[in-house]
Specification:
about 300 residues; alpha/beta; D-Maltodextrin-Binding Protein, domain 2; LysR_HTH_N; DNA-binding
Length: about 300
């Protein structure tokens, strides 16, 4: 029996559909269905209850799944044993990140990772969707909040500060605010996301965050587009340090009200590395975890 059949079984069970399993294995649903049927014939029992809306494991399928995971884990450990002896890291890792963080912080690291591990295949999935790591086959995810569901590990990489800024051209035309209260007289740019629009927060050491209202002249759902609008002089924006530090260093942006700690939302601002909790973490995943902790752990 081929291990690929067990891999399809696990993928279909985790994703809840043959179509999702097919996407993960870069094939078509009919092929997955035929392969699972072949596995059922080989084992002599039905593994899935199939209908047009849902795919669920039979009692036999659930028992087989436990053994399949164990076999695949042992095979992964065996491959790692050989790979470590040859000092090589092989295999594929699926890493998920938001579009802005992925483009600004992760993509610049890919060349270094490839040079260090040339036989490692990395799939970088850039999305704003909070994915279910197991059902969507994600090995690692970079998130901006520690609130995650399921059996996962969340490791804090670095804190994030938000910086109020504008372009030199905007400052030349309109001046700059001297206090938070002055913001009412300026065009502000805000995130067009739930809970991150008209209400910002002033943070204090050991004190509750104090909300204050702004009247956005423009709301944009993309952090990268919001940064671009700020660079082009459309208004004042509150942006993450990893988005604007380079622009400030190159005098493309001006940091405003530096003595005020601000945030567009309440809660801890940080980047987290999240991954499914497993009895055995494959070496291909471990090396990426270690690389990202080292490369991103010091912050922007």
């Amino acid at each position: 029996m081929k291990l690929s059949l067990l891999e399809l079984l696990v993928s279909a069970a985790d994703a809840g559909s043959f179509a999702a399993a097919a996407d993960r294995h870069q094939t078509d649903p009919s092929t997955v269905s035929r392969q699972i049927a072949a596995l059922e014939r080989h084992l002599g029992g039905r593994l899935f209850e199939r209908n047009t809306r849902h795919l669920s494991l039979t009692e036999t399928g659930a028992n087989v799944l436990v053994h399949a995971r164990h076999i695949l884990t042992e095979m992964e450990a065996l491959r790692d044993c050989v790979g470590e002896a040859a000092n090589k890291v092989r295999g594929k890792v699926r890493l998920s990140a938001s579009v802005a963080y992925g483009e600004r912080r992760v993509v610049p690291l890919l060349g270094r990772m490839q040079e260090r591990h040339p036989e490692l295949k990395l799939e970088l999935v850039l999305t704003e969707t909070q994915q279910d790591l197991v059902s969507e086959g994600i090995d690692l995810a970079l998130r901006h909040a520690p609130h995650v569901s399921g059996d996962v590990v969340a490791a804090r990489l670095h804190g994030t500060s938000y910086i109020l800024c504008c372009s030199p051209a905007f400052a030349a035309r309109h001046g700059t605010p001297e206090t938070l209260g002055d913001l009412k007289g300026f065009a502000c740019l805000a995130y067009a996301l739930p809970g991150m629009g008209e209400r910002w927060f002033r943070l204090g050491e050991g004190r509750p965050a104090v909300p204050f209202m702004v009247e956005p002249a423009m709301s944009i759902s993309s952090p990268l587009a919001l940064r671009r609008a700020c660079l082009d002089g459309a208004g004042i924006a509150l942006l993450a340090d990893w988005l604007v530090n380079d622009g400030i260093r190159m005098n493309q942006l001006i940091a405003l009200l530096p003595n005020d700690r601000l945030s567009p939302s309440i809660g801890e601002n940080a980047a987290w590395l999240v991954y499914p909790s497993r009895p055995y973490q494959p070496r291909r995943v471990r090396v990426v975890i270690d690389f990202l902790k080292q490369a991103l752990g010091a912050g922007p």
